[in-house]
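Open question from group meeting: does this chain pack into something compact, or does most of it stay loose? Before anyone orders reagents, we agreed to write out a predicted structure and look at it together. Recording both the input and the output here so the notebook holds the full record.
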Amino acid sequence: MTEAHALFDEAAIRAKQDRSKRYGEDGLFLHQQVAGGLIDRRFDIARTLEDIAVYGGRGLLSAQRLGAGSAFTVERCETQLVGQGCLASPDLLPLQELRFDAFFSLLSLHNVDDIPGALIQINRCLKPDGVFMGALFSSGTLDAVRTAFLEADAQTTGGANPRVIPLMDVRDAGGLLQRAGFVMPVADTEVIEVRYGDPLSLLHDLRAMGETNPLKARSRTFMRRETLGIALAKLDALRGEDGKIPIRFSITYLTGWAPGPDQPKPLAPGSAKTRLADALGTQETALKR
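Structure tokens returned:
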């Protein structure tokens, strides 16, 4: 992805994630829940993992929690320290080919410009029959926030500023894994609804997670007080019967396997030795044209 066509400001992403660490536990509640989902899925696989790589994870995906012998952690940061697992850019993963039994990614791929390219690099660092498991924010996340700020911008400026990043649809996820060379791809989505007492608490959590606006096309001037007030009022109007504001986060879990010689292969068409009608105990009827 060339700089001219980049959607995300990589320096801003690293700075926001570095600043988010100051919030400590405040920014980890979603990461903790999604990490639990990834760990559950990992133990659906009855396999010993010796060497694994973890992209992101905020320290929540340790080798011990994932049942692995050792974990090499890579994450975005201001300084590239490959020996310690620090990563300056996701466009060039500092990982040796055919090294790992598994690669895990926790809420780290949704703001990568070239997701297919990142997945290809992940595939290359896996041993044959190695597994990739990841979780990322996907379509539906923060839709209420997107709408509130678009409407507020339209009312106060007559235009629109991009404030919430575009996100992948789960229907595209399997295709992306296949394009990257993974086999037996699986994608499923979990919707997490967080209910807030006030809109400012939501904005606090987004800063604590390092998930405020990283788009290159974002406005570089301070938001008008009037615009912010209208957007917050629109969010406030969404309160439910419990007096809380429901905000949805859509999490897509991905699983794919690096090709390996011992993996099950689909049978050739017409090679079945048992009739489906016999298996179902029913009468086969010829199709009338």
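Observations to bring back to the group:
Residues 3-280 form a domain with the Rossmann fold fold (CATH 3.40.50.150).
The chain has a mean pLDDT of 88.
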